[in-house]
Design brief:
Elements lengths: L11 H8 L1 H5 L1 H39 L3 E6 L14 H6 L4 E10 L3 E2 L13 E5 L3 H5 L3 E4 L11 E4 L1 H7 L6 E4 L2 E9 L11 E5 H7 L8 E6 L4 H12 L7 E4 L2 H43 L1 H9 L4 H38 L7 H27 L3 H5 L3
Parallel strand pairs: 4-9, 6-8
Antiparallel strand pairs: 1-10, 1-11, 2-4, 2-10, 3-7, 5-8, 6-9, 7-8
C-alpha cells in the first residue's frame, strides 16, 4: 500500500500570523523600524498636501483678483535717468476700447508720523500717495474698516491707511496722523492689497487735496487699468505708445498676476526638492528594516531550524520573513500617511488655506512603503530559507 504525501501549504491567515511573530515579540525594535518608514511617508504626504493647498489658495486668489490688471509706470528708457508719465496718460489709457477701469496713484513729498512730536526722520518706511476714487474697484481691494476716498472726501484732510501702515503707526479708523506737516483723520484701513503690495505701506490721501494743498504732481506715478479678460495681450501691446506717444520706450508695463503665477511655479519647484528629501528618508527607513530583518534571522536560527524539522519548506520560511518585512513597512506607511495628513490639516488650518490631501500621494506613499519593505526583506528572507535544519538547530 502506497502512502500519498500531501504538499504542505501556507494560507494567507497563517502567513499573517507567523509573519507577525517577530513584530509581537520584539515590539520596541518593530516600532523604531516602522518609525523610519513613517517619517519618510509623512514627509512626502505632508509636502504634497501643503503644496497642493498652497497652490489652490494662489489659484483662488487669481480667480478672485483677476488676471486682467495691468500696471503702467515710467521706465528708464534708452538714455536712462528719471522719467515721468505725461499728465494725460491716465485719460489716454481710458480711451483704449477694451479697457474697463483706470485709476492711478501719485507719490506725495511728505512724511508720515503718528504725532508731530516725533522727529521727521522717523517715518517707519511709509510713503504718502494721492489716490483716485476708482482705485479700490480697479484693484479689487477691500477695506478692513471704515470708508474709502470718494469724490467728496478727496478734497478733505482725510486718509486711508494701508494694512502695514496702520500696523506700524498703531492707529485705526477715527484716529489722526501727522501727514506732510498737517493733521489728517483716518477714515479707513485697507486689507492687504495682493496685486499692489506697495500700497500696504502707503498712506493714501485724496488727489484733489494733494495737488491743491501739498504740491503733488498732476502726472500719475502708477496707473492701474482693468481690461476685458480676452484682450489683455492686445491692450498690453499698445499701452506704452498710448501712455507716452513721444517716448514709448520710457514706459514699463507689467501684469501683477504674473507674480502670483510665478509664486505658484516656485512652490512646485520646492515641492520637488522636499519630495526628494522625503524619498531619502524613506530609503533610510528601508535600510533600517533590512538591517533589523538580517539581525532577526540570526537571532531566530533555532526557530527556523525547528520549523524546518517539523516540515516547513524553504518557501514557507522565506514567505514568513518576507511577510514580516512587508507588514512592518506597511504599518510604518499607514502611520506615516496618517501623520502626514494630520500635519497638512493643521498647517492649512493655521494658514487659512483650503485642506487638500492628495489621495494619490497617500496611496502612492503607502505603496512605496510596501515596496521598500518587500525589497528590504528579500535578502534576509532568502538567507533564512537557505539555513539547513541541522545547522539551525545547533543553536538550540
Amino acid at each position: 500500500m502506497t502512502a500519498t504525501l500531501e504538499r504542505s501549504s501556507l494560507h494567507a491567515g497563517d502567513l499573517l500570523r507567523v509573519g507577525s511573530i517577530g513584530l509581537r515579540t520584539r515590539r520596541t525594535r518593530a516600532v523604531l523600524s516602522a518609525l523610519g518608514i513613517a517619517i519618510g511617508i509623512a514627509a512626502m504626504v505632508s509636502v504634497l498636501g501643503v503644496s497642493d493647498s498652497s497652490k489652490a489658495d494662489l489659484l483662488a486668489s487669481l480667480d478672485r483678483l483677476g488676471t486682467n490688471l495691468l500696471t503702467v509706470q515710467a521706465g528708464g528708457g534708452i538714455g536712462g535717468g528719471e522719467t515721468t508719465l505725461p499728465a494725460t496718460a491716465e485719460q489716454m489709457l481710458a480711451r483704449i476700447g477694451p479697457v474697463e477701469r483706470v485709476a492711478s496713484v501719485t507719490p506725495v513729498d511728505g512724511t508720515v508720523r503718528r504725532t508731530d512730536l516725533v522727529p521727521s526722520t522717523h517715518t517707519g518706511g511709509l510713503t504718502v500717495q494721492a489716490a483716485d476714487p476708482a482705485l479700490l474697484d480697479t484693484l479689487a481691494a477691500e477695506l478692513a474698516t471704515g470708508a474709502w476716498l470718494d469724490s467728496t472726501r478727496s478734497a478733505l484732510p482725510v486718509t486711508v491707511l494701508g494694512a502695514v501702515a496702520a500696523e506700524r503707526l498703531g492707529v485705526t479708523t477715527g484716529a489722526k496722523v501727522w501727514v506732510a506737516d498737517q493733521w489728517f483723520s483716518v477714515i479707513g484701513v485697507l486689507r492687504p492689497v495682493e496685486l499692489a503690495q506697495d500700497l500696504d505701506r502707503s498712506v493714501l490721501i485724496g488727489r484733489d487735496l494733494a495737488i491743491s494743498a501739498l504740491g503733488a504732481d498732476e502726472a500719475p506715478g502708477t496707473v492701474y487699468l482693468r481690461t476685458m479678460p480676452n484682450s489683455v495681450d492686445a491692450v498690453r501691446g499698445v499701452v506704452a505708445a498710448t501712455a507716452n506717444p513721444r517716448d514709448p520706450d520710457q514706459v514699463t508695463v507689467s501684469r501683477p498676476s504674473d507674480a502670483i503665477a510665478a509664486k505658484a511655479a516656485a512652490s512646485s519647484a520646492f515641492t520637488n526638492l522636499f519630495l526628494a528629501l522625503g524619498a531619502v528618508a524613506l530609503l533610510v527607513g528601508g535600510v533600517g528594516i533590512a538591517n533589523v530583518m538580517v539581525i532577526s534571522v540570526l537571532e531566530r536560527r533555532s526557530e527556523i531550524g525547528l520549523r524546518r524539522a517539523l516540515g516547513a519548506t524553504r518557501r514557507h520560511i522565506s514567505a514568513q520573513f518576507l511577510a514580516e518585512a512587508v507588514l512592518l513597512s506597511a504599518i510604518g506607511g499607514l502611520g506615516g500617511a496618517l501623520l502626514g495628513t494630520a500635519i497638512t490639516a493643521v498647517y492649512d488650518l493655521l494658514r487659512g488655506w483650503p485642506l487638500l490631501v492628495p489621495t494619490t500621494g497617500i496611496a502612492g506613499g503607502f505603496a512605496a512603503a510596501v515596496l521598500i519593505g518587500a525589497v528590504a526583506g528579500l535578502y534576509p528572507a532568502v538567507r533564512a530559507s537557505r539555513l539547513s535544519p541541522t545547522e539551525a538547530l545547533r543553536t538550540v
